Amino acid sequence: GTGKTIVALHRAVFLAKTNPDARILLTTFSDTLANALRTKLRILISNEPRIGERLETHALDAIGRRLYEVNFGRPLIASREIIGQILEQSSKQVKGHKFGLHFLLTEWEQIVDAWNLKTWEAYRDVTRLGRKTRLPEKLRAVLWNIFDRVWSALTEQNMVTTSGIFSQLASHLEETRHVPFDFAVVDEAQDVSVAGFRFLSSLGGGRPGSLFFAGDLGQRI
Which residues pair with 25 in a beta bridge? Predict the structure, then answer.
C-alpha cells in the first residue's frame, strides 16, 4: 500500500494530543475498514489509552445514522431495492420516454439524490458530472416528472435515503453551528459520496485544519 492509512492514524492521534479538549472523528467508508482502523489505533495509543476517550472511529454511514437519530429520530432508510421499485412504478406513470430502470437508478443515485435536488430548476441546471448520456432540457423535464414522483413517495412513506441523511445533517449543522466533532480524519476518501463530503464539510465549518483526507488514485497517496 501507499501508507495513507498510517498517515491518517498518526494525524488523528496528533490532533488528540495537541488539542486536549477536542473530539476527533476517524472515519472511512465501510464498517470493515473502520474496525481495522480501530484495531490499529488501539496499538498506536497503547501507551496513552486515555487519548481514545476523545477519538471515535466509525464508518461514515454509521456515524451519519447515529447523528441523524440524535437530531431527528430513528430514520426509516429506503434501500436501493425499494428505490428501484419506486422508480419503476413512477416510470410507468410518465409517458413518452424510453429510459430503462438501470439508467434511472444511476441518474437518481449519482445526480438527483447525491446532490439533494428537490426542484425542477435544480435538476435542470445541475452539471451532470460523470454521466455519459447528454440530456437536453426536454428530456430532463421528462426525467424530472419521474424523480419528482420518487421524492413524493419517499415523503409519503416517511423514508429517507443514506444521501438524504447526510444532506439533512449538513443543513442542520450549517444552521446550528454546533458540531459534534472538532476534527475529522477520513481514510479512503476517494470512496466517499457527494452527500458524505457535504456532511464532512459542515463538520469542518470552515475552520482551518479541521478536515484531513487520505486517499489514493492509482495507488499514489
Answer: 56, 184
